[in-house]
Amino acid sequence: MGRVFVAGSINMDVVATADRHPRVGETVAGRQVLYFPGGKGANQAVAASRLGARTTLIGRLGRDAFGAELRTFLGAQGIDLDSVRDADTHTGTAIITVAASDNTIVVIPGSNALVSADDVAAVPMAKGDVAVSQFEIPLPTIAAFFARARAAGAVTVLNPAPAQTMSRELLALVDILVLNETELGFLAGAELSESDEAVEIIGVARKLQARADQTICVTLGRRGVLALAASEELAVPGRTVKAVDTTGAGDCFVGALAAQLADGMPLRAALTFANIAASISVQRMGAGPSMPTAAEVTAVL
Length: 301
What we know:
The chain has helices at about 40-50, 65-75, 115-120, 140-150, 170, 180-190, 200-210, 250-260, 265-280, 295-300, and strands at about 5, 10-20, 30-40, 55-60, 80-85, 90-100, 100-110, 130-135, 155-160, 175-180, 215-220, 225-230, 230-235. With about 300 residues, the chain is of the alpha/beta class.
């Protein structure tokens, strides 16, 4: 079984719950404030580790109370933290408002903005490993990480969120691109909506492909997952569940997919497993703490 290496962000999520989101200029009464370990990189690493993958996280934490708390939490999840370094700034923080089943998020990068190519230079990847990243650390760092991964024979998985413009050179280093409909539309320069049919979504994905052998997975929430694997089209149906907090659902999917791929599972089976894992995570509050175990996913399967 291969290892999962995640180069990415580590945040403390400060979550405020309310009956509804405030309008611009409006103040509403909240119900409670909660503190959860988060950050897309940390969430994906927690998901992979809880699902049985040997997982290494590469990132930065501030020398503050949040940093110390996050290091303790991540270590308790069985994640290798030897490549998580301290930085002379505050730990990354996300301010999240949850109302009903929707959320809004403001992310302050802090120490995540300092993750550099030097941080990924000595990571011992090998053939069969899976290298994962997202857009909450600098893009040049991701490019350096993926270049090393591909040279070692590892599979590269990119979750381009929050969406931003990236170079064709970086996209070409990606073996598996995992994104939602909004992110796909942004990167491909296309207009997509929830009413679009599968054929339209796959058509846009095909235009975005940087290599003939590249896989693009489009997560569609309750509608499931569509994937363009080289020239093959795959569809995984969604699951209807009562969502409590959707924060981190996409990260759960990515971490679960990486864990399955590191275990040598075929893509379709890995997508099905990851889709179920994400549907379990939205039924709980928080990002990192909501990630399921392999036993919970297997029970649904």
